[in-house]
Specification:
589 residues, alpha+beta, 23 helices
Length: 589
C-alpha cells in the first residue's frame, strides 16, 4: 500500500490522494458484476466501505487536497530530470541542467506534502469513519454532502424521481426519510456493521494504528461539543460531516502554510503544522456558532443544491487576509505547473496531469475483467464463466468476435443534480455499451457532458501511472520518512488529537488513558470484554439511524444490562463512552 492511499476499515478499499481513484473491496464477484453492469443497486455490504472512501474523495477533491496533489506534482516534475541531464526527444538529444535551488525546492515541496499529509491523517480517517458510522440526513435541512447523495445513487435500486408522490412534501427530505434511511438502517443495524465498528475500537490509540481510532474519537467529540451549541448538528450529522470537512479543506491559512517553501527545516514545518491543526480544532469546538453554519450553507437554501457552500471564509473562521494570501500562493503554484506545458521533455505529461486535477470529480470506483462476445448488433458479457448480461452494441465500428474486456464503473461527483453513476462495457480500446444512472431529466446531460471526460480520464490516468514509475526512485529517496518514523513525531501529533479525543480529561488523566489504550484502544479500556465492545458499537450505530437521533432502554434485559455496565465503566474510568440519564442513553462514540 502506497503512502498516498487512505484505506477503509476492511484494509482493502482505498482512495489515492493524488488521483482520487477509489477501489472498493469485495469487487471480484459475479454478484457485484451483475449489479454494477446494470441499473441495479450495488450490494449493501459495500455501503460502509463506499461511504468511507467517498468521504476521502470529498476531502481530497477540495482546495487543500488539490494543493497537496499539486505540490506533489511540482516536486516530482522538478525532479524528473534530476537523475539524467540528457534525454532523447524525437530522435534529438535534449540537454537539461538543474540548479542547486531546483533540487532544494523539489525536496522542500515533497517534505511539506509528506509532513502535512501525516499530520492530517488522523483527521482524514476520523472524518471518513464518521461518514461511515454516523452521518445521517433526517430532513431538517436541504443540505446533503456529495458522499451521501452519491451513496443514494449507488445503493438505491433504480432511477430517482425528482418529485415525491405527494407534491406538497418537500422533495429532498422525502427522499432521505422514505428512500435512503431505510437502506441505511438496514446496513447499520446488521451484525457486519457492528463487527466492523468493533474492530475500529480495538485499533491502537495513536498513529501506529493509522490514526483511525484517534481521529474518530476526535471527530466524535467535536460533534458532541458543537451539538451542545448547535442542536441541528445532533440531528443532521451529515451537515456536521460537511461542515467539519470544509472547515479544514477550505482553510486557506493552512494552504498558505503548506505552500510556504521558505520553511525548509523539517522540525520547524512540523511544529507549525501541529500548532495550526491544534488551533483549528480548538476554534472548531469552541468558537463556531449557528450563524457561521447557516452562512456557510446559505447558498443551498437560496439556490438549491447547485452550490454546496458559501465561498466567504468568515463562515469557516478564516480571516480574509489569510484567504487572499493562500489563494495567491495557490495561483503561483498553478502558474509554475503550467510553465512546464511547453517543456520538450515533460510537456505532454504536464498537460494531462493538470487536466486531471479538476477532473478528479470523475471517480473510477470499480472494475472487473470480463469476456465479451460481439455478434452483429448484440453482445454477451461473462465474468468467470458466468453470463452477466447481454444487450445491444451502442457504438459503431465494433467488430464481431470474442475478446478480453472489462466492466468499469465511474461516479461523477458533480454538484447535484448532474451527479450520477456511469457504467462502461469495453473490449480492447472500444466502448461497446454504457449506462447512466442519475436523476430523471438529467441523464442525457450527464451522458453528453461526461463520456468525453471519462475517455480523457482514462488517458490521463495512464499518463500519471507512467509518470509515477519514472519518479518512484526520487520519491522514495527523498520522502520525509526519517522524520515521520521518529517516535517523537508520532507522539507529538498524537498528543494534539488526544487532547480533543479524550475531552473533558486533562493532564495526567489523558496520559493514563493514552497508555491504557496504546495497543488495543477502547477494547483495552473495556478489559477485552467483547460483549461490551460489540454493544457499544451497536448503540452508536442504532443512534445514527433512529428517527429522532435519541436512544432509550428498550426493555431487553440483556441489552439493558450491557448498557448499564458501559455507563458504570465510563464513570469509573472518566472516559466518555455511554452516559445514562434515566431511561435515556447518550452514546458518545
Amino acid at each position: 500500500m502506497t503512502a498516498d492511499r487512505f484505506c477503509s476499515g476492511d484494509g482493502l478499499s482505498w482512495t489515492d490522494l493524488v488521483t482520487n481513484v477509489v477501489k472498493l473491496s469485495g469487487t471480484r464477484s459475479v454478484r457485484m458484476a451483475q449489479a454494477m453492469a446494470t441499473w441495479s443497486s450495488a450490494p449493501l455490504d459495500l455501503m460502509q466501505s463506499y461511504l468511507h472512501e467517498a468521504a476521502h474523495h470529498a476531502f481530497f477533491f477540495s482546495p487543500l487536497g488539490d494543493n497537496l496533489a499539486s505540490l506533489y506534482l511540482s516536486s516530482t516534475l522538478r525532479s524528473q530530470g534530476l537523475a539524467s541531464n540528457l534525454q532523447v526527444k524525437d530522435g534529438n538529444s535534449v540537454s537539461r541542467t538543474f540548479s542547486d535551488e531546483t533540487v532544494r525546492l523539489a525536496r522542500i515541496e515533497l517534505m511539506h506534502h509528506d509532513v502535512m499529509k501525516e499530520v492530517l491523517r488522523p483527521l482524514i480517517e476520523g472524518i471518513a469513519l464518521f461518514a461511515e458510522f454516523d452521518a445521517t440526513c433526517r430532513g431538517a435541512t436541504e443540505y446533503h454532502t456529495k458522499p451521501m447523495v452519491s451513496a443514494l445513487h449507488m445503493f438505491h435500486n433504480g432511477p430517482i424521481a425528482e418529485s415525491p408522490p405527494q407534491e406538497e412534501e418537500r422533495v429532498r427530505p422525502w427522499i432521505w426519510l422514505h428512500v435512503f434511511m431505510p437502506v441505511l438502517r438496514e446496513v447499520r443495524l446488521a451484525d457486519a456493521a457492528t463487527s466492523r465498528k468493533a474492530v475500529v475500537y480495538g485499533l491502537p490509540f495513536g498513529l501506529d494504528g493509522g490514526g483511525y481510532l484517534l481521529g474518530y474519537m476526535t471527530v466524535c467529540r467535536a460533534w458532541e461539543k458543537l451539538g451542545e451549541r448547535i442542536p441541528l448538528f445532533r440531528s443532521e450529522a451529515d451537515l456536521f460531516f460537511g461542515y467539519v470537512s470544509d472547515f479544514f479543506t477550505r482553510d486557506y491559512s493552512l494552504i498558505a502554510l503548506l505552500l510556504d517553501t521558505s520553511i525548509d527545516d523539517e522540525r520547524e514545518f512540523l511544529d507549525r503544522c501541529i500548532a495550526h491543526i491544534a488551533a483549528r480544532l480548538d476554534a472548531l469546538v469552541n468558537d463556531v456558532r449557528l450563524v457561521d453554519v447557516e452562512g456557510w450553507y446559505s447558498p443551498v437554501l437560496r439556490d438549491g443544491n447547485d452550490r454546496s457552500h458559501s465561498e466567504d471564509p468568515a463562515w469557516l473562521l478564516v480571516s480574509k487576509r489569510s484567504d487572499v494570501l493562500g489563494r495567491a500562493m495557490e495561483e503561483n503554484l498553478r502558474r509554475r505547473l503550467r510553465s512546464y506545458e511547453s517543456d520538450p521533455l515533460r510537456g505532454r505529461a504536464v498537460r494531462e496531469l493538470l487536466w486531471l486535477l479538476p477532473n478528479r470529480r470523475i471517480v473510477p470506483v470499480w472494475s472487473i475483467e470480463a469476456e465479451i462476445r460481439v455478434a452483429g448488433p448484440k453482445f454477451e458479457l461473462t465474468v468467470d464463466g458466468a453470463e452477466i448480461m447481454s444487450g445491444a452494441v451502442q457504438f459503431p465500428n465494433v467488430k464481431d468476435g470474442v475478446g478480453a474486456g472489462s466492466i468499469d464503473v465511474y461516479f461523477v461527483m458533480d454538484e447535484p443534480p448532474t451527479l450520477g453513476r456511469i457504467c462502461l462495457i469495453s473490449r480492447g480500446g472500444d466502448v461497446i455499451a454504457h449506462w447512466v444512472l442519475a436523476i430523471d431529466g438529467y441523464i442525457e446531460r450527464l451522458r453528453r457532458d461526461t463520456m468525453r471526460r471519462i475517455v480523457r480520464r482514462r488517458s490521463a490516468g495512464a499518463v500519471f501511472d507512467s509518470f509515477q514509475q519514472a519518479v518512484t526512485g526520487y520519491v522514495e529517496r527523498n520522502r520525509a520518512n526519517r522524520l515521520l518514523q521518529l517516535p517523537t513525531f508520532r507522539a507529538e501529533v498524537a498528543d494534539v488529537y488526544s487532547r480533543f479525543a479524550l475531552w473533558p480529561l486533562s493532564g495526567a488523566a489523558i496520559e493514563e488513558h493514552v497508555q491504557r489504550m496504546k495497543e488495543f484502544g477502547i477494547v483495552a479500556a473495556l478489559e477485552g470484554d467483547q460483549a461490551l465492545v460489540d454493544h457499544l458499537a451497536f448503540l452508536g450505530l442504532s443512534r445514527s439511524v433512529s428517527k429522532s437521533g435519541e436512544l432509550y432502554l428498550n426493555g431487553d434485559e440483556q441489552q439493558d444490562e450491557l448498557t448499564h455496565r458501559l455507563d458504570e465503566v465510563s464513570k469509573r474510568l472518566g472516559l466518555k463512552l455511554v452516559t445514562m440519564r434515566g431511561d435515556s442513553i447518550v452514546n458518545h462514540i
